[in-house]
Fold:
Amino acid sequence: MFKDIAANFIGRFWSILSNFLFIPLYIKFLGFDSYSIISFSLVIAGLMAMLDAGLTATLSREFARLDVTVNEKINLFKTLETSYFIICGLCTFSVLIFTSNIARSWLNLNTIEVEKVSFFLKIVIVDFGFQLIMRFYLGGLLGLQKQVTANIYQVIWGVVRNGLVLIVILILPSLKLFFMWQAVSTVFFTILIRFALMGSLTGYYKYYYRPTIDILVFKKVWRFTGGMLLISLVACLNTQMDKIVISKLLPIKSLGYYTLGITLSMGIITIVNPISTALLPRFTALYSEKKNFEAANLYSKISLFVSILIFSIMSNMIVFSRELLWIWTGDKELSQMASVYLPIIAFAMGMLSLQIMAFNVCVANGYTKLNNLLGLLSLFVTIPGYWFATRYFGAIGTAYVFCFVQSLTTLFYVYYVNKKFSIAQSLSSLYFNQMLFPLILSLLVAFLFSFISNQIPNNRIITLFLIGLSTFFAAVISVLVLVDKNQKKNIYSFILNFKKK
Structure:
């Protein structure tokens, strides 16, 4: 399992690194107006994620179960794959019809023609339709615990799709070529990853496809799939509604600035996801074998360290927001415009990240009720809240609403999951040791280092090194102060066991 975590870290590290490397170059070669269109394309991608319908999570969970035979898994795959093709095909075609109306009536465009934007959106929709199918196959590989293979494909796809496109736009700066290159790359890798999944599942590689629908499969998994579908729908609305409202009420450039803050702060979730992805099959296997105590013990061992990691990164994003954006983009004016959003969004993303491990426990148990309830309730705040805050306070108001909802949801969600699944953590341990104290310690360390940064030369490399040092010391000091000797010994033996596996 240690190599799975390492592979996931490499995959997620590449995701972070590619953002740092490529987005500033996209802005440089294509211009910030074009990047704002790219930002809106990501909103569409987020909304299209609703088409997943819970099928990827269902496939991954069923493939990870030890009480399901290979033949049952093959039949499950064929049925879910056929369903996926039908859903993605119909919905993608339906959305393609409305691209002209979206470009003309929704976006506040200044420098790019409506017809061009409509054409770009058509390419984007096809691209993200295939991305959904590709991630469905990747979910199967992850469920089979082929996490090294899955991450190798993701990294290579990222290099080809997001890296090599730089050569294209360097020779001919064109947003049309940018989107077309990305779409073709996604189609190609979708085919490759299906080959890899079939090989891992059946022992032989083929791309032969026969439409299959087995009603018995849906009877078996409909509760979990339906719950995950509702989670997906609500999550997409909750995570994309802020950007949807900004794109409607404010100039498209405002969305670009806001998205820079979102993209950078997503690094927090990206750091936690490798641990979560590697542990989910383990949680699923333990709960499927009724080893609830071992599963709860595993959660307790890892959750404090995940919290320390989250708050160490988040605090430095809050304190060094302008510096990080400047290091990233190399543009002081751009970093100044986007830095007002980053501290608020980073705090929200940090709180959201705290839900990830608890969510794993819920998924491993097939429990989705709580996510659906909280998600639906939060819509009563976000839908009117984003509209009111954006209209009267601009994008900064949107950021505050997003932060408030994520923070409040996290406080309740993590507590309830700990209580429901009998995870032996007291209320004080949960809220103080895992949230308040790591936050205070990390902020103190970051503020101390901020005084040092004011005395150093105006150099991006030196500043980045200092922020990295601040993050490292925040994590180390938090571990020394908050983790007792027994926990340190347990986690050390835990890591050794992972390495052996």
Observations:
- The chain has a mean pLDDT of 81.
- Residues 252-288 form the longest helix (37 residues).
- DSSP finds 21 helices and no strands in the chain.
- Residues 428 and 434 are 9 Å apart (CA to CA).
